[in-house]
Amino acid sequence: MCGIAGFWLDRASGDPRAVLERMTDALVHRGPDAGGATYLSDQGVGLGHRRLAIVDLSPAGAQPMTSRSGRYTIVFNGEVYNFERIRTELGAAGGAYAGHSDTEVMLRAFEAWGIPEAVRRFNGMFAFAVWDATERRLTLARDRLGKKPLYYGKVGDCLVFGSELKALRRFPGWNPSVDRGALTAFLRHNYVPGPCSIYQGISKLPPGTWLTCARRDGVLQLAEPSPYWSIEESSAAAGRTPFPGSFTEAADELERLLRDAIALRCIADVPLGAFLSGGVDSSLIVALMQSQAQAPVRTFTIGFAEVEYNEAEHAKAVAAHLQTDHTELYLSGRDALDVIPRLPDMYDEPFADSSQVPTALVCAMARRNVTVALSGDGGDEGFCGYQRYFLWRRIWRALSRLPAPVTKAGAIVAGAVPEGVANALMRLLGPVLPTWIPRDAAGERLHRMAQLARHPSPAALYRQLISHWTEPEQIVIGGAEPAPRPLVMADVGDPDAYTRHMSIVDAATYLPDDILVKVDRASMAVSLEARAPLLDHRVLEFAWSLPTQYQFQGERGKRLLWEVLLRYVPRNLVDRPKVGFGVPLDTWLRGPLRDWAEALLEPARLAREGYFNPAPVRAYWDEHISGRRQRHYYLWDVLMFQAWLERQVAS
């Protein structure tokens, strides 16, 4: 796990090695163990690296690393988990190894099979740049699911790339503008969806792709990203060859795959542990880790005094049953609030998933004891776990049974009910309503349902369901959302098939741009490597081959994950409503964060900066502060951009 940065200069200017060192110095948090090592080719290609030593801690694992033949030179961020198996497959080809790092095995694989075929054989999380001195070609590549980040683009006539934008900002002549289309999309999603970045002309390399750059007739030519693996094709192929066995046989196969995925991810020459929330995903990962470990696994949980946000007691009970070496830390509101000023530097791009705060805290706690931590990320996308899938099903069933005029009229009536009235009715009727109906913020939810009812197609309904600002063009001055990714929501008639489809779309969008960004930046900010066994591509491809009744049943997802977990943990320890990994933003914005937010949302400031229309933003702020409506999630999007913008101006 490291940080990489580099360039291909159009022409020599200044001291390119000094530029490269400045770029990599910006990534010291990603690689505190070694830095300053650079590679410069006679063609103007520069490769820089910061090292977080995980496998082969000796100088033999240092980068940039050049193959024995001298043809390939690589800088690499991440891990290729199956490197020992690839090394065995390669046999004696190329002679003796200098060390036992995965980087050296990658270079041998490039020599033996070429870059495209080698990458297809890698099982891991990675972003790398490889210079081919024979073909005079630079290749950038990113892992299948997008666990590791890689930004690239042009500054003048030069190609620049790096693990984070802060490295690119160190390149001479850097002066890009904010991409207002990306900002508009950010307000809808609370993250900047790839391949956009917040800057015009700078892109994120899409997951599962590579691109090449070569000089033709003296001009640098950058190819379009080319996929070597895609969620669309892999999920479709898995669906064409469905798993033929029984439910029990499917659970056996999933357990086998996960045990192997975890074993691969436990290869490290540094202390290793796991995050444990007490939920199904993290509990399953820890259970399978502990079943293969020779000593108690180190597990980490944070707790909050607010009961509605606290899962620490549940995690403690699971840890006691599994006999892990468990560490828990109860945090005050002050602890969480202290993280917020660091978020713009930590995330380096506007990012507004509020669970970034507890994620940063648990990563910092774990890093005091270990250098690698396994997580349960990926269970919701792979095994249909998000409650919004089942909320969509309930809403769509109701809408599809009613004539369109009735639905439209109902939406108008529901939208006209004051939130205070709806909240009072919920308090009165709550005891006799079905348990799946949320009791909190009833008025806001009713108005949201009224909005959803106006969208007659399954795809439009789901888009509304996952949106924050539903009309962000009205907020961003000069903003227009970019076209959606090639993977779009199809209107599938069968609700079961469409539920699966939503989870696949989330795996291609929400997973790499929200969940994995959140964990990567929070963990790397404290030099911690996070590994996610549920995102082994073999596990996902198996999940996509399952019959829908193995994935979910009724209103509950992750059916097969539950089946495997209950082989290790009693049901009473884990079977409970999901709490989520959040913080009380609503009350914080009315209390300890009020002055901070007020300064960032001051109307004259918004008008002067020229990104947001002040009137609707201030209207939401006034509604939230007064307590008339809950607007914290919308406001957090704006505040995270404002805090990021302030940091860019200051630096």
Give an account of the 3D structure.
With 651 residues, the protein is of the alpha+beta class. The protein is 45% helix and 14% strand. It has 30 helices and 18 strands. The strands form three sheets. Strands 4, 5, 6, 7, 11, 12 and 13 form a seven-stranded antiparallel sheet that branches. A six-stranded antiparallel sheet has the order 2-3-1-9-8-10. β6 and β7 (137-142) form a beta hairpin. The two termini are 27 Å apart. The model has no long low-confidence stretch (mean pLDDT 89).
Cα distance spanning the termini: 27 Å
Helix content, binned percent: 40-55%
Q: Which blocks of ≥5 consecutive residues have pLDDT under 50?
A: none
Beta-strand share of residues: 5-15%
Shape descriptor = globular
Number of helical runs? 30
Strand segment count: 18
In terms of structural class, how would the helical and strand content be classed? alpha+beta
User: For the CA atoms, what is the radius of gyration?
Assistant: 25 Å
Mean pLDDT: 89
In short:
With 651 residues, the protein is an alpha+beta fold. It has 30 helices and 18 strands.
List keywords for this structure.
single chain; 651 residues; alpha+beta; 7-stranded antiparallel beta sheet; 45% helix; 14% strand
Please write out the topology:
Layout: E1 2-8, H1 16-25, E2 38-40, E3 45-51, E4 65-66, E5 72-80, H2 83-90, H3 102-113, H4 115-121, E6 124-132, E7 137-142, E8 151-155, E9 158-162, H5 165-168, H6 180-189, E10 202-204, E11 209-216, E12 219-222, E13 226-227, H7 231-240, H8 247-265, E14 272-275, H9 280-292, E15 298-304, H10 312-322, E16 325-331, H11 333-339, H12 343-347, H13 356-367, E17 372-374, H14 379-382, H15 387-401, H16 404-416, H17 419-429, H18 442-453, H19 458-465, H20 495-508, H21 510-524, E18 529-531, H22 537-544, H23 548-551, H24 559-565, H25 571-574, H26 585-590, H27 594-600, H28 603-609, H29 614-626, H30 632-650
